[in-house]
C-alpha cells in the first residue's frame, strides 16, 4: 500500500500544479532522439544522411599523427572530438539497444547505425598505432574561440593519445566498455564485426589495467576543464570490467570485478562517474539469474535509487517545483537522462522478478520507480510549467537558439562561402534570430532550478545539446513508446 500512496502523492502534486496531460508521442521522440546523431557526425556522410544541412567535415583528422582518425561524433555544439564522452555515448546507446531493442520497432536499425558510426571510429583510435590509444582530435582551447561550421574548420586538428608513458585508464576503460557493449548489439546482426569489437575491447581493457593513471593528468589542458576525469579512473575500470563480463561471461572479468573492491556510493551517473551504472548493470545477475555473488551490486543499486526517489528518507536529490530532478546547474539534463535510464532499467529487472525493496520506511515497487522515470521523460518532452519541450523539433514549443555551431550558421547550400574562425560571431552568434538549421532531436542542457529557460544561444550551460544527453534517453523513450500507444 505504501508504494501506491507514494505514486498517489507524487501524481497529486503534479495534478495540483496543472501539468498532467495526455502522454507525449514517445515513438516520435524516440525517432528524433536517434536522428539527432546525424547532426553530430564528422567525416564523409553516407547517402542515408537525413539531416541534409550537414556536409562532409574533418577529412584530414589524424593527418598530423599520420593515421586515419576520420569519423566519429562532435560531442556537443563545438567541433572537437572528445573520446571520453563519445565512448560513454556509445556505451549508453548500446545498453539502451540491448535492453530495449525489441521495443524500438523500425528505430532499431537506426540505433545500430548510430552506434556503428561511433564504433568504427573508436576501432581506428584503438588499432591505428600499436601501444597507443587515440583519445581526441582538435585543440579545444583553440576551437572554443571560434564560431564556425565543422565544414569550414581551419583550426589545428591536434591529435591526442594515451600510452604506457602517458596513461589514461579512464578513457581506455570507457572505450573498452563501449566496444564490449556494442559487440553484443552486433552479435547476431554482424558476427564478424561483433568479434572484432570484442577482441579490441579486451586489448584496450588490458591497456587500461596495465598502465594505470588518469588521462587528465597525462593530457592536462587538452581535456580539462572540458572533460576532466573528476571521479578518478577506478569507476571506468569497474565499468569496463562489468561490460566485458557481460559480453564474455569469463571468470577473469568476474575476478577483476571482485578485486576492484568496495565502491563509492554516488547520487548521480554521468560520462564522468560510472559507479551507479556499473551497480545497476551488475545487479542484473543478482535479480535475473538469482546469482548471490552479485548481491552487493543489487544493494548498491538500491542505495542509489533511494538517493534519487523524492520522498525516500535517504534522498539527496533536489526536484524543481515543476518536478524535474535537479543535480547541477551546468547541463542538468545530462544527469536527468542518465539517471532516468538507470531507474527505468532497474524497474524493468524488478518487474521481471516481482522484486520490491525498502528505502527506510518507503516501500518501493517497479511502478513507483517508473512513475518518477516517466515524469522526467515527460518533463523533457514538454509536460512542465512553461510547456517547453527540451527536445528540438518535438512539439510546438522548443529551443530555437541552441548553442551549436552547425545549427546556428547558414548551411553550405545557403552560404557557400567559407566562414572563418571569427566569421560566425557577427551576425550569427550574437543574433536574436532563431537558428537557421533545426537540429532535430537534440536535447539541450535544460531549464534552471526555477523551471525557467531563456532560450539564449550564449547561455551554453542551458542551451547546448550533447551526444551523451541524448544517448541516455533513447532506452527510456523506447520503453515508454512500447508501454503507451498514442
UniProtKB/TrEMBL annotation:
<keyword id="KW-0326">Glycosidase</keyword>
<feature type="active site">
    <location>
        <position position="464"/>
    </location>
</feature>
<dbReference type="Pfam" id="PF00759">
    <property type="entry name" value="Glyco_hydro_9"/>
</dbReference>
<keyword id="KW-0378">Hydrolase</keyword>
<keyword id="KW-0624">Polysaccharide degradation</keyword>
<dbReference type="InterPro" id="IPR001701">
    <property type="entry name" value="Glyco_hydro_9"/>
</dbReference>
<dbReference type="GO" id="GO:0030245">
    <property type="term" value="P:cellulose catabolic process"/>
</dbReference>
<dbReference type="GO" id="GO:0008810">
    <property type="term" value="F:cellulase activity"/>
</dbReference>
<feature type="active site">
    <location>
        <position position="455"/>
    </location>
</feature>
<dbReference type="InterPro" id="IPR033126">
    <property type="entry name" value="Glyco_hydro_9_Asp/Glu_AS"/>
</dbReference>
<dbReference type="InterPro" id="IPR018221">
    <property type="entry name" value="Glyco_hydro_9_His_AS"/>
</dbReference>
<protein>
    <recommendedName>
        <fullName>Endoglucanase</fullName>
        <ecNumber>3.2.1.4</ecNumber>
    </recommendedName>
</protein>
<keyword id="KW-0119">Carbohydrate metabolism</keyword>
<keyword id="KW-0732">Signal</keyword>
<feature type="active site">
    <location>
        <position position="403"/>
    </location>
</feature>
<keyword id="KW-0136">Cellulose degradation</keyword>
<feature type="signal peptide">
    <location>
        <begin position="1"/>
        <end position="22"/>
    </location>
</feature>
<comment type="similarity">
    <text>Belongs to the glycosyl hydrolase 9 (cellulase E) family.</text>
</comment>
<dbReference type="InterPro" id="IPR012341">
    <property type="entry name" value="6hp_glycosidase-like_sf"/>
</dbReference>
<feature type="domain" description="Glycoside hydrolase family 9">
    <location>
        <begin position="26"/>
        <end position="476"/>
    </location>
</feature>
<dbReference type="InterPro" id="IPR008928">
    <property type="entry name" value="6-hairpin_glycosidase_sf"/>
</dbReference>
